[in-house]
Amino acid sequence: MKILMVLISYILCIAAPAFSGELSGLDIMKEQKKRHEAAREYENIKMVLVDSSNNKETRELKRYAKKDNAGLFKYLARFEGPADIRGTALLTWEQKDREDDQWLYMPAYGQKLKRIAGGNKKGYFMGTDFSYEDLRPEKLEAHTYSVSNKEKYDNQDCYVIESLPSTDDEKKTTGYAKRILWITTDAFVTLKVDFYDHSMKLLKTQTAHNVKPIKGKLMRADKVLMTHHQNKHKTLMGLVERKIDGNIEDSIFTERAVTSFK
After folding, report:
1. For residue 134, what are the contacts with CB-CB under 8 A and spacing of at least 6?
2. What does DSSP assign to residue 134?
3. Which residues contact 252 (CB under 8 A, 6 or more apart)?
4. Which domain holds residue 242?
5. Which residue among 15, 73, 105, 153 is least crowded, i.e. fewest CB within 10 A of its CB?
């Protein structure tokens, strides 16, 4: 019996360093955020919406992001075309200890921003397959993250992470019961996300394509595809232009700037 106990202790001592070196799901998400967060970013995007009959609608979207002195982000996503939706915009202000603020501006319906309440953030942005909650920063403190597996996706080694809403507010407002993320083990880039509805049925899948380094460890995808399995609809976003750490005025993220755009 004593020999058996010695052997068990020896095995545990050998295994302990390897086990302690394993990253948790939260560790991986934090590392991803640290590596791929740009303080200022501008993107010009060609967006293509594809319906179940393969009809296509093309749009132009410009997106701005800037971190403030408190370390919180402001985002503006604005349609530049076609003419019937030009100027339509989504303004997002990240908040630290409460729900992020989001406002929708539609020029055809007046000169005021419409606040998007928490329960409405599961709605979809202007007929795309991206919900309002998809277009806000990841709230690490509002989710639990667990590594369920390691496997290859698109010929790359990935952590497979299950994300579940953990706070009462997040459970109440999110459109997802869970998400499954495939994040590369070397560069910590998300290549794929499966979204499940509250019946635990696969709702949609987001995939990143042509991922490449931009600056240092910072990486971005040139194309992002969101496939809505239940609606048989797709939204493809393709990069036209990107600028990292360029000059972005704070005034861009104000109601006056959004509503006065021509």
Report:
1. 125, 206, 226
2. G
3. 64, 66, 76
4. 24-259
5. 15
Listed residue (133, 160, 162) closest to 146, CA to CA: 162
Q: What is the count of structural domains for the chain?
A: 1
Length, in residues, of the chain = 262
- Residues 80-117 have pLDDT tens digits of 999 999 999 999 999 988 889 999 999 988 778 999 98
Query: Is 19 within a domain?
Result: no
DSSP state of 175: S
For residue 68, give the CATH number of its domain. Answer: 2.50.20.10
The tens digit of pLDDT for each residue in 137-155 reads 999 999 999 999 999 999 9
DSSP string, 13-74: HHHHHHHHTSPPHHHHHHHHHHHH--SEEEEEEEEEEE-TT--EEEEEEEEEEEE-TTS-EE
User: Tokens 């006065």 sit at which residue?
Assistant: 260
* DSSP-based three-state secondary structure for 261: coil
pTM, full prediction: 0.89
Please, are residues 43 and 62 in contact by the beta-carbon 8 Å criterion?
Answer: yes
